[in-house]
Specification:
Elements lengths: L1 E6 L3 H14 L3 E6 L2 H10 L4 E5 L7 H11 L5 E5 L4 H9 L6 E2 L4 H13 L8 H20 L28
């Protein structure tokens, strides 16, 4: 089992990603944290194979989380998601050795494929009907959440294109 820690202050996104990733691969154990401090607490209390984090969060932001996590776990692979991409953010990420990130809003399959690539150290392949099925299932989960969580909030969707390919060098994500 691979343990994935997802840190993001968007509750609906956390629920969608955790349910979607568990459905995508039954070998994933997903832990969620609604802010950077809670994520640090998880990292200090158990082994995590991958950290997926947003940058803007309360209590401790993504940069605080990255500093703490990578100081204590320098080989921990990290995937960063942000809706606030700019040259300053990119410069700060490069200082942590992170050269790529996912821009929000993000398609579920982009995250799922990237997670799979990072954890397996391979390039993603097209899984044909499985990807279509998973995409439909994730869309269903989002529709269900919109009906049950009338308080609003974003969920994982967007126009980043397909996740048919991963990074040529998985170490570009972080930690490999």
């Amino acid at each position: 089992m691979k343990t994935i820690l997802i840190a993001d202050d968007e509750r609906n996104l956390l629920l969608s990603l955790s349910e979607g990733l568990r459905f995508y691969d039954s070998n994933f154990t997903v832990i969620t944290a609604e802010n950077g401090q809670l994520a640090m607490d998880v990292l200090n209390s158990r082994r995590v194979d991958l950290l997926v984090t947003d940058l803007k969060m309360p209590a401790a932001d993504g940069f605080d989380l990255l500093a703490d996590a990578l100081k204590k776990h320098p080989r921990l692979p990290v995937i960063v998601m942000t809706a606030f991409s700019n040259p300053d953010i990119e410069r700060k990420l490069r200082a942590f050795g992170i050269t790529d990130y996912l821009e929000k809003p993000v398609e579920f399959m982009d995250i799922a494929e990237t997670v799979s690539c990072v954890l397996n150290g391979t390039q993603a392949k097209s899984y044909g009907n499985r990807l279509q099925l998973l995409s439909k299932a994730f869309h269903y989960l989002n529709l269900k959440k919109r009906r049950t969580h009338q308080e609003g909030g974003d969920h994982a969707r967007g126009n980043n294109g397909s996740a048919e390919q991963c990074y040529e060098h998985p170490e570009d994500i972080r930690g490999r």
